[in-house]
Specification:
Blueprint (H helix, E strand, L loop, with lengths): L7 E4 L11 H8 L3 E4 L11 E4 L22 H16 L4 E4 L1 H9 L4 E2 L17 E7 L4 H6 L2 E6 L4 E2 L6 E7 L4 E6 L4 E4 L19 H17 L6
Parallel strand pairs: 1-2, 1-3, 3-4, 4-11
Antiparallel strand pairs: 5-8, 6-7, 6-9, 9-10, 10-11
Length: 235
């Protein structure tokens, strides 16, 4: 059994992302965890959880659809992140998807995406640099309901959204226009949000949204609980 240590979180991203200035790595560090850039060949046994970050559009071929509004993507990144997600799901380790990561989880489980939301101007930056902000409604009994309550404001920077949910996934949050803003897996420690909590907390806290650190902390708690059961951590 290992001694207590900082949680180690895998992020399937290029190594160039792993800097103190990166939103994801800096937020994890500020919350007492260590983010590590990994590739698709990652061994989950050396990590406490997987964080799938935001980014560009997925190739719609992954969900067997023609391009109907998706922006040019990165096929190598798609393959790397899908492989890492597959490894962590099979190991039943906690996975948290943010924006693109939320959508990637849905595609992995067999779901599809709306490639260009008709209401995208209400959700995307649309050429600007500032996130949009809108209210969301959470399902009672969900992870996010427990953290934030039934209704609260979040940031928004996306033009795609969940269409058909993947197998085992349950929608737990919606924007006012019906866009799915969060989901959880019915039996695995896997969940995702369409918004960006890493841009809503700590040094990037906003007065017009809730504190994004709460959901990131909950993910880290899940990672610690799972690793403790596996004998990787002690109190």
């Amino acid at each position: 059994m290992s001694m207590n240590r900082p949680l180690t979180i895998a992020l399937p991203v290029p190594e160039t992302w792993a800097t103190p200035e990166n939103n994801y790595f800096s937020t994890l560090a500020a919350l007492g965890a260590r983010g590590v850039a990994v590739d698709g060949a990652v061994d989950p046994s050396g990590f406490d959880g997987l964080l799938l970050p935001g980014g560009g559009d997925l190739n719609p071929a992954l969900y067997h659809c023609p391009n109907m509004g998706s922006e040019p993507g990165d096929d190598a990144l798609d393959r790397m992140q899908m492989a890492a997600l597959d490894a962590f799901v099979k190991a039943e380790k906690p996975v948290f998807g943010i924006c693109r990561g939320h959508q990637l989880i849905n595609v992995y489980f067999g779901g599809t995406l709306i490639q260009d939301l008709a209401q995208a101007p209400a959700h995307s930056r649309c050429g600007g640099s500032a996130d949009k902000v809108h209210d969301v409604r959470s399902r009672e009994g969900s992870l996010l309901y427990a953290l934030y309550g039934a209704r609260f404001p979040v940031n928004s920077a996306h033009h795609q959204g969940i269409e058909r949910l993947g197998k085992g996934l349950v929608a737990t949050q919606w924007a006012g226009d019906g866009v799915i803003e969060a989901m959880e897996h019915a039996s695995l420690p896997v969940f995702g949000v369409q918004w960006h909590p890493e841009r809503m907390c700590l040094a990037r806290a906003r007065k017009d949204t809730v504190d994004g650190s709460l959901v990131i902390r909950r993910f880290l708690e899940m990672c610690g609980e799972k690793s403790k059961k596996e004998g990787r951590r002690v109190p």
